[in-house]
Amino acid sequence: LSKFDDMQAVFTWAARETIFRLTAINQAIRNPRQVKSLETWRLAERARAAGEVEVAARLLRASLDENPKESRSYTSLGLMALNRDDMGSAKDFFNTGGKYAEANQESALSATNLIYLAKIEYYDRHLPQAVALLEKAHSLDAANVAVWFELARIYTELGQTGKAREYVKAILVFANHRNQKYRQRANGYPQQMLSDPFLSQIVTENLK
Question: Which residues contact 7 (CB under 8 A, 6 or more apart)?
């Protein structure tokens, strides 16, 4: 029976891989400029990771020339603006990226843009605005541990420790989950919470 199950799993994986490749081929045929835009964004991300900022910026502009609605390119431009401490441009890029991600039904990417917008509001000490953005991100991507962490930290600052404790517990559950997928999502967050002046006490209470 186990051997049959293994064969079935391999067959299922192969079938899904085939469907994925056919979908990618069909998309390339129907929307070649969108595919080229996405590939150019991937090249830009490699350049950005390597510290080649000017090359990354040029590639991101080329990506948007191919597809002005490529949300990932706006997100990357937003991150580059953050690194320059250009908060105004960063907010514009994240807002635009989030708008197109939501229109394309890319909920996780839309949530990512909202997280960055919330961090900008947080550092400007606009805590209610940051919470509103994070709660919207949570509604789009309910299992996003980064959202849980940011909400826990801000709710603690606002004195709403009950809400903060719920998110801390959720992160610790993922961090100790028997499923590796969930552990990976929470990787590093318990350590961040322990070193955070607002969250360390709550974490310590839950670890007892």
Answer: none
* Local structure of residue 50 (DSSP, 8 states): T
Instruction: Say yes or no to pLDDT of 143 above 70.
Output: yes
pLDDT level of residue 20 (50, 70, 90 thresholds): very low
CA neighbor of 93 nearest in space, from 71, 111, 115:
71
Residue showing tokens 């801390």: 168
Output helix, strand, coil percentages for the chain, rounded to the nearest 5: 80, 0, 20
Give the Cα separation of 208 and 203 in Å (integer): 9
Determine the Cα–Cα distance for residues 149 and 120; give it in Å rounded to an integer. Answer: 15
Does the pLDDT of residue 53 top 80, yes or no? yes
Query: What pLDDT, on a 0 to 100 scale, did the predictor assign at position 190?
Result: 92
75, 105, 107, 72: which is closest to 92 by C-alpha? 75
